[in-house]
From TrEMBL:
Heme b binds at residue 202. It catalyses: 2 a phenolic donor + H2O2 = 2 a phenolic radical donor + 2 H2O. Removal of H(2)O(2), oxidation of toxic reductants, biosynthesis and degradation of lignin, suberization, auxin catabolism, response to environmental stresses such as wounding, pathogen attack and oxidative stress. These functions might be dependent on each isozyme/isoform in each plant tissue. Ca(2+) 1 binds at residues 72, 75, 77, 79, 81, 97. It is an enzyme of class 1 (oxidoreductase). Its main location: secreted. This is Peroxidase. CDD domains: secretory_peroxidase.
Amino acid sequence: MPPYSAQLYYRYVLAMLLILCASAGCGDAQLTPTFYDESCPNATSIVREVIQEALQTDPRITASLTRLHFHDCFVNGCDGSILLDNSTNPNSTIDSEKTAIANNNSARGFDVVDNIKTALENACPAVVSCADILAIAAEESVVLSGGSSWTVLLGRRDSLTANRTAANEALPGPTFTLDELVANFLAVGLNTTDLVALSGAHTFGRARCLTFTDRLYNFTGTGSPDPTLNSTYLEILSEICPQNGNGSVLTNLDPVTPDTFDSKYFSNLQVEEGLLQSDQELFSTSGADTIDIVNNFSANQSAFFESFGESMIKMGNISPLTGTEGEIRLSCRRVNGESYGLTATLVAEY
């Protein structure tokens, strides 16, 4: 083939590829578990080591990191947007999701994410996204707390902005009814089994009194306790969270094994010891199809672990940025090229 013909041929091939990209979307790359096998083969072990170190002084960190992944994915997809601080750049205003109702003085673990990012940047500069850090950290946190692993799909890229308004609207609240929970999960493509399985993450971690005190003293404005709350458990919670007391006091989501990832959460629901209204709704809503799922997970921990992993994979696939979309942030708290700004101090909940 003459040289000029070869040149025309390659130009033709390139043109066809560009046409295909325009029609199919080259940014729509699929997530894969092998994404960092060559570019950062030790990514998962690096994440694990940082979490293990954090666990030495903070037994709640695994629950907190798992929750961060959940709260990231439910707002504009799994894009690391929850990690962004308020912007100080007038040309790139970022209204941090950290100050949304469900996150403010509640979401935590950002310093550990920073440490993970620093360790990964030292090993593999500008390679591993913050969104993927959250996905890996969630899986490693569950395993380190006694749960089973699942295949973490990778290849997400980081958002260039946050969405506090969407965070206020999209994140489920502790007083949600079952119908509200089902609709909330359905809005992001997750079904009822996913709802029950992912709610099982409340088998470890803590919650503040203000998230459930209405159940103790004035449930739905009745002036009485929630009738689905075990009377003995009510007395215990009333001592921890007295009426008109400090709403920031913490208590265990799972009173039996608070720092272990197991199926005790579902056993607690069966005896009306779900801490949050949104927990107990899964079992105490008359005629709900979630009751059988709760019973199954309580009796069969392996079934819970398997479903939890499957649901985490589904959740991790909610609208990820891939290909050339977004960026790989060098700091999880700000977009690349932006000056660093401080956000509001966040206090622990989970």
